[in-house]
């Protein structure tokens, strides 16, 4: 049987980084993955350019049943530490928007960087590895793989969440947590597009591809100011992905379709200049024409000229456009979700090392843990920070 100091399951963002760091500390590390390539989500991320961190990373950008848990790791290995590493590997990058850092060329550079760091730490990587069972005894952890068994004093679970099963996602990490008596919070797809009920979808489908700047609000008052995109299935774009993490089935979302311009003031100015202009054509100066047409078909924009629009109608129109209420039918689910909410209960883990308090030698890092970031590089930063914290301890 092959023996190691540390076995890490999952060669994604967290697993690769943890393996590299632990290896460079002189630990003999085996990194296992069920796929044929390491870092598959990294390769797909950020439209192939990997939004690898966010300059404004702070604990408030993370959802968890235990919001304080992420603070220690994020403070000890920060976005600036990861940016330093990217600089050392001479990977060119840029800020796209809102502190989001993307590679200029390709996400593959981040995987190559992590692989180079693993090589520096003499990490042994075994791909296409199925873990059939995990057992714990005095010597540590023994894993039955397809065709071999391996043993280590420390076991790190970095197998990620459930989003995008096509990229190798499995519930493995949650099952191991349960096997060792840890609580797992129910999971659900997050950073995910909304689907709509058929009648609304049929009306809005013709807007597929149209994007507008919005502020979007969940029923709990959480608000994001980003773009919303109409799609042939429903609603997407950064604003919608963000708010999906705060939305519960059955709830409405409220969208301000004109966050930068007061509808009331706009109409007053327009009416003074062009009283005989139709309201529809007037609003088309502010919003995509097709959107205005659809809202008129839905009876939300009166079919009148500006001088015919009475003050009650104007007030209702302003309310409709500034507080457009939509009740999503659901989300597109794990198939297209960027992340998974919920996961291993953090109250059972050390925030300093990520070790399970009641199960010495067992660690959980990255997305499998009940810590989920906003869209914009926050989830990779959690992967790096939690991996680093763990790597100092294993
Ligand atoms: P990750 O999912 O990266 O890795 C888990 C690994 O474990 C995988 O390699 C998997 O094959 C392996 N595994 C699973 N089950 C196993 C088993 N039973 N046995 C062995 N191995 C197993 N975030 C961000 O900050 N910026 C971005 O630009 C993006 N973009 C983005 C795009 C897309 C399309 C998706 C799906 C996600 C993103 N994300 C993102 C989110 C980000 O990718 C995610 O949060 C991190 O990859 C999580 O890192 P982990 O290492 O925890 O899991």
Automatic annotation (TrEMBL):
<dbReference type="Pfam" id="PF03486">
    <property type="entry name" value="HI0933_like"/>
</dbReference>
<feature type="domain" description="RsdA/BaiN/AoA(So)-like insert">
    <location>
        <begin position="188"/>
        <end position="339"/>
    </location>
</feature>
<dbReference type="InterPro" id="IPR055178">
    <property type="entry name" value="RsdA/BaiN/AoA(So)-like_dom"/>
</dbReference>
<dbReference type="Pfam" id="PF22780">
    <property type="entry name" value="HI0933_like_1st"/>
</dbReference>
<dbReference type="InterPro" id="IPR023166">
    <property type="entry name" value="BaiN-like_dom_sf"/>
</dbReference>
<dbReference type="InterPro" id="IPR036188">
    <property type="entry name" value="FAD/NAD-bd_sf"/>
</dbReference>
<dbReference type="InterPro" id="IPR004792">
    <property type="entry name" value="BaiN-like"/>
</dbReference>
<keyword id="KW-0274">FAD</keyword>
<dbReference type="InterPro" id="IPR057661">
    <property type="entry name" value="RsdA/BaiN/AoA(So)_Rossmann"/>
</dbReference>
<protein>
    <recommendedName>
        <fullName>Aminoacetone oxidase family FAD-binding enzyme</fullName>
    </recommendedName>
</protein>
<keyword id="KW-0285">Flavoprotein</keyword>
<feature type="domain" description="RsdA/BaiN/AoA(So)-like Rossmann fold-like">
    <location>
        <begin position="5"/>
        <end position="392"/>
    </location>
</feature>
């Amino acid at each position: 049987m092959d023996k190691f100091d540390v076995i890490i399951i999952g060669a994604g963002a967290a697993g690769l980084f943890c393996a590299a760091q632990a290896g460079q500390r002189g630990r003999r590390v085996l990194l296992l993955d069920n796929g044929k390539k390491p870092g598959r989500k990294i390769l797909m991320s950020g439209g192939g350019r990997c939004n690898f961190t966010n300059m404004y990373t702070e604990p408030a950008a993370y959802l968890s049943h235990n919001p304080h848990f992420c603070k220690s790791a994020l403070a000890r290995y920060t976005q600036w530490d990861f940016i330093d590493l990217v600089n050392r590997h001479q990977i060119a990058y840029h800020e796209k928007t809102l502190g989001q850092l993307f590679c200029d060329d390709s996400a593959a550079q981040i995987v190559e960087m992590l692989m180079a760091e693993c090589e520096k730490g003499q990490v042994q990587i075994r791909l296409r590895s199925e873990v059939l069972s995990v057992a714990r005894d005095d010597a540590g952890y023994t894993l039955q793989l397809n065709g071999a068994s391996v043993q280590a004093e420390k076991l790190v679970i970095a197998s990620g969440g459930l989003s995008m099963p096509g990229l190798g996602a499995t519930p493995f990490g949650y099952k191991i947590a349960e096997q060792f008596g840890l609580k797992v919070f129910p999971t659900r797809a997050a950073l995910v597009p909304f689907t709509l009920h058929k009648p609304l979808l049929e009306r809005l489908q013709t807007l597929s591809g149209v994007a507008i700047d919005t502020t979007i609000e969940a029923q709990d008052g959480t608000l994001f100011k980003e773009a919303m995109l109409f799609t042939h299935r429903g609603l997407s774009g950064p604003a919608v992905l963000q708010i999906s993490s705060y939305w519960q089935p059955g709830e409405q979302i409220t969208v301000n379709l004109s966050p930068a311009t007061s509808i009331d003031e706009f109409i007053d100015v327009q009416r003074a200049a062009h009283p005989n202009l139709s309201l529809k054509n007037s609003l088309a100066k502010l919003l995509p024409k097709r959107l205005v047409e659809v809202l008129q078909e839905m009876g939300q924009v009166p079919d009148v000229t500006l001088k015919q629009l009475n003050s009650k109608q104007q007030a209702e129109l302003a309310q409709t456009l500034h507080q457009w209420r939509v009740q999503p039918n659901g989300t597109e689910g794990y198939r297209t979700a960027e992340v998974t909410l919920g996961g291993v209960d953090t109250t059972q883990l050390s925030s300093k090392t990520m070790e399970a308090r009641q199960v010495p030698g067992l660690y959980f890092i990255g997305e499998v843990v009940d810590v989920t970031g906003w869209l914009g590089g926050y989830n990779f930063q959690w992967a790096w920070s939690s991996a680093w914290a763990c790597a100092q301890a294993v």
